[in-house]
């Protein structure tokens, strides 16, 4: 069949049942669709439902109605070129749970002021470049030791290690691309096994934070990273999967063959074609058709 409707939930909940998948299949049939049997990628967590003769938007709406608000993500995908050959991932609030500028600000006791700027910038309400200059400016003069103290607070997003390890085992090139700081991307990339990383660089002078190196890497740099990685690997952006949560991720999400907004800001969810709102980062694997026994830590 020409389309796949994939249902995914949080593996820590694993509440996806045959009854729910059958309710979605029935809804597609009522929309005059041709519907195939459910293919369980991971019982309780993810399944594929092949279908034809229903427009993707109508199929997604029918599925969400049938699910009645259950915490299940719905993706409408094509079977061809489903498994991508490169991953380009945002870091903060995506691969890790933290927003590192916010963490630095709270450590410096100006957290609320900086966090509000971050929230508005990530939701597309403020210019990203001016917002990061303003936030770094507020931290100017703070001791450089602050950077290492805050690094101890980093927490990986659930499923991050499984995502990167599984993709690496299947020969996928993995790039970590952040609008944050290389003081943190270097360590996270090494810890998880990313093939490369890029991020902004904080200037430290006389043992204190002095500013940010220009040019600042943001929306355009992430899009360019996607294109560069594809070119270097001899593939196209259509052969890549990208993931992020903020407004400065939208350009790369829109150009990637599979661009997923992960637990994203509301305006980003509205603009993105694909959203994961409930699952963890292993949802990116299920979206590509990986099965439970292929996923690191899920066997």
TrEMBL record:
Necessary cofactors: Mg(2+)
Pathway: Amino-acid biosynthesis; L-serine biosynthesis; L-serine from 3-phospho-D-glycerate: step 3/3
Documented EC number(s): 3.1.3.3
Reaction(s) catalysed (UniProt annotation): O-phospho-D-serine + H2O = D-serine + phosphate; O-phospho-L-serine + H2O = L-serine + phosphate
Gene3D superfamilies named among the record's database cross-references: HAD superfamily/HAD-like
Superkingdom, taxonomy of origin: Bacteria
InterPro entries to which the protein is assigned, alphabetical: HAD-like_SerB (IPR050582), HAD-like_sf (IPR036412), HAD_sf (IPR023214), PSP (IPR004469)
Keyword RNA-binding attributed: no
A Pfam family recorded for this sequence: HAD
GO terms assigned for molecular function: hydrolase activity
Keyword line: Amino-acid biosynthesis, Hydrolase, Magnesium, Metal-binding, Serine biosynthesis
Family note: Belongs to the HAD-like hydrolase superfamily. SerB family.
Protein's name in the database: Phosphoserine phosphatase
Name of the coding gene: serB
